Amino acid sequence: MSLDLQKGFTLDLSKPNGASLSEVRVSLIWDPVIQGTDVDIDLSAFLLHNGKITSAADVVYFNTPKNGPASSYVLHSDDSRTGAEASGDDEDEWIQVNLDRVPANVTSIVFVANIFNYQINNQTFGVVRSLARITDSATSKRLADFALSNDYATDSAIILGAVERQNGSWVFNTIGEGMMADLNGMLARFQ
Question: What sequence ranges are listed for the domain TerD (predicted)?
């Protein structure tokens, strides 16, 4: 059983024995509302240093080199361009973070989703059934789901939430801020 996250909710990423999770996976699951319509949603992560992106290496997205600077602790799936790579309740794109390896100067990792070429294709999250999922990667245990379709039907981008250091442990804070923007528009908020 997993939680249904709402905007503003904080999820403690500790195990029942009090130890922190070692790996967390944030994934996107989506299917177009109208069959035969392709919707390219991208999941990205911003590695923040006291709330700011300090270099291009702090952005993990579908085109990040697999051997890039953050590759020792962040892994991005292949790019799903249609949402058809998985069916129903399966992950279309994901980012996995080894929390034990995150450098101390990375204070939080913000996860964002945006519809690629939303202006050209005239698309928002209203054209898909979608959700974000948080999973304990080590055990594959689903921790929480965050429904995206209804509250963000008029948005092309969503700041989903952030994995943040808190009192020597990690938490996931659900942000749930929708907007009309592309990846660069969201990046500007953290520079």
Answer: 1-190
Question: Cα–chain-centroid distance for residue 144?
Answer: 13
Burial (Cβ within 10 Å: 0-12, 13-18, ≥19) of residue 109: buried
111 closest CA partner among 183, 174, 160? 160
Report the CATH superfamily, name and number, of domain 3-190.
sav2460 like domains (2.60.60.30)
**What are the φ and ψ backbone dihedral angles of 19, each rounded to 5 degrees?**
-75, 150
How far apart CA 179 and CA 185 sit, in angstroms, is: 9
> Per residue in 131-168, pLDDT tens?
899 999 988 888 888 888 678 999 999 999 999 998 88
Residue 14 DSSP code: B
